Amino acid sequence: MTSTAEQPLAGIKVIDFTQVMLGPCCTQMLGDYGADVIKVERIGAGDLSRTAIPDRAGLQNPVFSSLNRNKRSIALDLKSPAGMAVVHKLLATADVVVNNFRAGVMERMGLGYEALKAINPGIIFAAGTGFGVTGPYAHKGGQDILAQAMSGVMARKCDPSEPTLIYPTALADYSAGMHLVQGILLALLQRGRTGKGQQVNVSLYDSMLAMQMQEASMWLMRERDFSWGAMPFTGTFETTDGAIVIVGAFKANPLREICLSLGLEDLSADPRFDSYETASAHRNELHAILRGRIATNSTAHWIEKLEARDLLCSTVRNLGAALEDEQTAVNEMVLRDGDFAAVGTPIHMSEGGFAFRHLPPGLGADGAAVLAEFGYSADEIQGLAAARVFA
Questions:
Q1: Which of the following is catalytic: 16, 95, 144, 173?
Q2: Mind listing the pLDDT tens digit for each residue in 87-98?
Q3: Listed residue (111, 117, 140) closest to 203, CA to CA
Q4: Which of 39, 213, 333, 391 is most buried per CB count within 10 Å?
């Protein structure tokens, strides 16, 4: 852990209008490295992820908690003039404002970049949308699964006979959130040279296209599909007590090495499998042979045999097993504080790195303290609370 003063983003103030995942994973990363993140939420409801799943913790459920440490919450009535006056006061001295509403929502609220630049020329206006801020899909509702579908990710398969499936981890949300972090950091560096703020825009759609950079270039330049997972010497195979994955790549003759490990005759001499092209055409036949052999012994047995020949392989395990792994502990990838538990940050720095400063906030829990920091008197705070401008 690192002291707050040593962190790279210490002194950076972020006003956070984000909800669900794209935006919150971005602002959590900023908070993890020292930024003061003030989360602006709706009175009574807050971030949509607070009520996304039924849970005994209610508004502090694990989904919300996983994305909102190192932040403070103020719940405001943004439909009231007094509530908007509070927001303008927060934004007047902020370094960064982040939202992941549909394109145009912040503008309709009077909080678009041009309006904010007029009161704070140095502000960095960071937005994550579904499809971009202009174009035919700009005002379409964006969501991770839709981005998977529309970007081509969902249609890609290791085997054409497989059904079309939703990938169960939010790839688009996380990648777009991390792109938004990168954009904000670049804008902060630029402002350090010019003194000027700017807009930073990312989208779920663009992030999913960018994630397919290798596949996209193969299609654009050769009109060919490309998939590391569909390579003929790569696959998952059941054992007597689980499953393993083998990545047959980066060797002169990976199939020969696999066969030697498994105690099979050298299938790379078989005309069906003697080249990448022929093995690709007969992938199902090859995998049937490998599957039959691997099913005869345990996961540990085959991992030992494969690793002895320096082949890329692994057990296939569930998330619970991964979280309990010694490597996970060594990497300090699980955070715990009382009832709170979450995955930590994957960025490890020798100087000025991560600090766990705040538990995920209760809805509006920091409102009075935030208002006091921005110059509101005790009487003014009491009056705003009585008028339900904040809660």
A1: 173
A2: 999 999 999 999
A3: 140
A4: 39
